[in-house]
Amino acid sequence: MSTMVKLISQEGEIIEVDQETVMLSVLIKSMIDDSGTEEDIPLPNVSKSILEKVLEFCKHIKEHPLQEIEKPLKSANLRDIIPEWYDDFVDVEQETLFEVILAANYLDIKPLLELACAKVATMVKGKSVLDVRKTFNIENDLTPEEEAQILEENKWAEEAIQ
Amino acid sequence: MESAIEFPDFFTVKFNNHAKIDEKEPFVLYSITVHTNFSCYHIYKRYSDFSKLNDRIMAIKSEAENSTHHDCFKNLPAFHGSSLYYWNLDEGFIQERKGQLEKYSQSLLQFYHKFSDRNHHKNVMFKKCKVKSYKKYSMNSVKEQIVSGTTHLDLDSSSDTDEGETFQNYEKNQHQEIKILDTINEFFSVSEIFNIETTMTIKIQRAFRSSKFNSGLRKLKKSVYSCLGYTCKIDQLPEELLLNIFTYLEKADLYKASQCCTYFKELSFHRCLWGRCKIVNQKKDFPIGKYLPKFLSKLDQLKVLDLSFCMSLDEKNIKALSPHVFTGNLKELYLDGCEKINDNALTALMGGDPNHLVADAGNPHLGASLKLRRIPTSYFLRKEGIELLSLNECRNIHCSGVMKLEKLKYLKTLNLLGCVSVKDDSIKHLNNKSDTIETLNLGGTGITSECIYYIVTEGAITLKNVNIVGCKKLKNSDIELLKTSGFNVTGGEDVFRFNLLPEPFSGLKKITQSVLKTRSTLSIFRVYKYLAKRLINELKYFPTEIAESCLDHDEFIKAINLEIHCHGVALEPQLQLKEVNEKFCNGSQALLTLYYRNKNEEVKFSKIDKELTKFPPKPPTWIPDKLCYFCCNCEKEFSFFSRVHHCRACGKCFCSACSMNKIILPQYGYTTEVRVCISCYCRYSSSGSQEIPRQSSGRNGNSIIFDGAVLISPSGQNLGENESHRIM
């Protein structure tokens, strides 16, 4: 029987998971290596809902390995590149997605980080500047002069550079 | 969320590390781990925070002067005021201040514990008080509180007052105490992080990153972001995560991203995103000179630059490229089909100073000393530089332009396909100068049989692949010659695959043999020179067996000696000799024999020799008998009748005549007289004046005569490549 590990989310709730599953996280792995599975593992930076989502990913990837996503992206639709389940997994609200990225970064889970980052990249790929600003609700803090300068510099490059 | 909860009645703090935050007025931020009876978290404070805390406590204390309980404030710890060095960011000062602050916090918390215990003992309201909860420091609720400005205490008026004291009364008396507790509590709770402005977070992150406190950084980052209340937006992602996202984008998308906002603009030109870059432009009148310099100045880490078919690239605007050629970052440069590139353009491209590499090598000290000595750059510098240069279909390039390419010290592949004006001379010249070239694409060039003969006999030893497709002046016999000499020839009637230099040294014997058959004596020396060079670098991996098989070739020994010598002079003497020394001890012992066989050059090698004999306490390793063929002094061959003797002082092999002296060697633990060779006898014995008998032997006739004056000029300057060729 495999060992269970107790993770404590930001809210202080305890989630019990299989040790094998969470070993994907380098952070948790090093914590277990340090102090064993007996002790609870506090994860004050990950909320419960995100932690559950991360664990869902960890469980799935054990049985359905995910190939490394090629850089740069071949298509703006992740479905063309990776299995459907993974695309559905990251097809969530932006806020949740960023939280997943932060959590994956904090917990040091490379495949999840890559997947979520690729998802964000698809939201930028092939879009116009205005679309990108709108999608991510980015404030345009460039002065008109700066903007004109970038446009001038980049006009040739956009066409010429591959 | 509302729940009955106690204050944390237990706090401990530990100061971890600190980071210097580079604001207008720089300050130091301390990372502090706080343990409470609920949880453990990190807070980030600067000195002025502590100062403010102290001010507040003092204010409360003065309020309490008249109350009945004022005596209990006596125990409050003293705070170290700021000193003259208020802006001192010196490491020692920070450490000292850190210690003071830690002490202060700890004694403050002692006071806190004592206080809350006392109150607890009195069975006062702490039990009953209702806190609009920050149950286990849930960020959202804490934030709510801060925003709404509610206090932590929401007193329950229905509480029992067993001791007969009315609640109001108690509150009055205890008011100041509670205030202090509250202040302390607030100070050490996570809520304080809200005081850090959002714009600051990135700076803080950077500061922590640069101070290499990764774990601290990770925690800080996370707490900062969670404190932002989970309204996480893409431009609030940390730099490295956003960069990671950008790596999935194509160049055109990066350009668009750069127009979104300043943060994106900064990041989208980050060096890690621009390793490889192709510029497509086929218009003849395109003013590439206008854009290229600006563009390249942004991207200093470019590895591959493809400017194929930039028709407008000419000798004037190619200058923008020239600084990149010698910085060591650019590895591949494609200039295929750039019609306007001519000899002058190549000269301009190579106009940079190849010694720039030296100065740039990272270690300024090393750089300076190397420059002083003017050693061949290919020896010790970082092995970086352009490895591939493609000039296909640049029809305006002539011999003089190609000759300039000798400055590229790391060039492995050169494509000159279709450069019709390139002739024998330049290819010969390149072959002569280059130590690294592996592939030459000479298709369609005007090379003749003479050039092929040169490549086969005296060409660069590293050369493996030659493409001669469509070289009209070549004959079948030339192709045959190339093939039989072991080149990968493309473009002849057939493609032969024959690896000249298989991986490291396997098959070295075969090479030696095949070279012996097909190449002139001079080219054998080239092979040996190459091997010797590698040998010095990879000595530990050099199999004894092969070293032995090379023993019979005097040329090889010459090459090795030359190499050792070049090394000996070129590197810092101390470091270098130690290195050679170690290599000789750990590496193939056969080399020692090789080396000492030519020991007649006593004068020049005496320096190395001296180092080799300076074996620390333990006696020197003896060279195995089976590797000793000659006496290291008189070079007499060992046989049944002339047995091998080892000198106890240097470990080398000698005949009995050359090792008849005996002395004591206390430094090696020999307290009785032991056998030493003549030179060691002279070195160690007190008389020391005995002359070393030298016997000439037939073998000496072949050994190379090093001309000391050439190898080491009086000023200590080392020989350049040219001289070494001359010696050969």
UniProtKB/TrEMBL annotation, chain A:
What keywords sit in the KW lines? Answer: Ubl conjugation pathway
Query: Which Gene Ontology BP annotations are present?
Result: ubiquitin-dependent protein catabolic process
InterPro entries linked: SKP1, SKP1-like, SKP1-like_dim_sf, SKP1/BTB/POZ_sf, Skp1_comp_dimer, Skp1_comp_POZ
- The residue ranges of the SKP1 component POZ domain are 4-61
Pfam families noted in UniProt: Skp1, Skp1_POZ
Pathway(s) annotated for this protein in UniProt = Protein modification; protein ubiquitination
Hydrolase: present as a keyword of the record? no
Domain SKP1 component dimerisation per the UniProt entry, residue ranges = 110-157
**Gene3D superfamilies noted in UniProt:** Potassium Channel Kv1.1, Chain A
Instruction: Report the family membership.
Output: Belongs to the SKP1 family.
Name by which UniProt lists this protein: Suppressor of kinetochore protein 1
Q: Which organism is it from?
A: Euplotes crassus
Automatic annotation (TrEMBL), chain B:
What Gene3D superfamilies would the database entry show? 1.20.1280.50, Phox-like domain (3.30.1520.10), Ribonuclease Inhibitor (3.80.10.10), Zinc/RING finger domain, C3HC4 (zinc finger) (3.30.40.10)
Q: Which intervals hold domain PX?
A: 8-133
**Which keywords does this chain's UniProt record carry?**
Metal-binding, Zinc, Zinc-finger
InterPro entries registered for this protein in UniProt = F-box_dom (IPR001810), FYVE-type_Zinc_Finger (IPR052113), Leu-rich_rpt_Cys-con_subtyp (IPR006553), LRR_dom_sf (IPR032675), PX_dom (IPR001683), PX_dom_sf (IPR036871), Znf_FYVE (IPR000306), Znf_FYVE-rel (IPR017455)
Task: Provide an example Pfam family for this protein.
Answer: FYVE
What positions does the domain F-box occupy?
231-277
Domain of life, source organism? Eukaryota
Q: Does the keyword Zinc apply?
A: yes
Gene Ontology molecular function: phosphatidylinositol binding; zinc ion binding
Q: Where is the FYVE-type domain?
A: 631-685
Q: Which PANTHER family match?
A: ARRESTIN DOMAIN-CONTAINING PROTEIN D, ZINC FINGER FYVE DOMAIN-CONTAINING PROTEIN 21
- Protein name per the record: Uncharacterized protein
Annotated organism of origin? Euplotes crassus
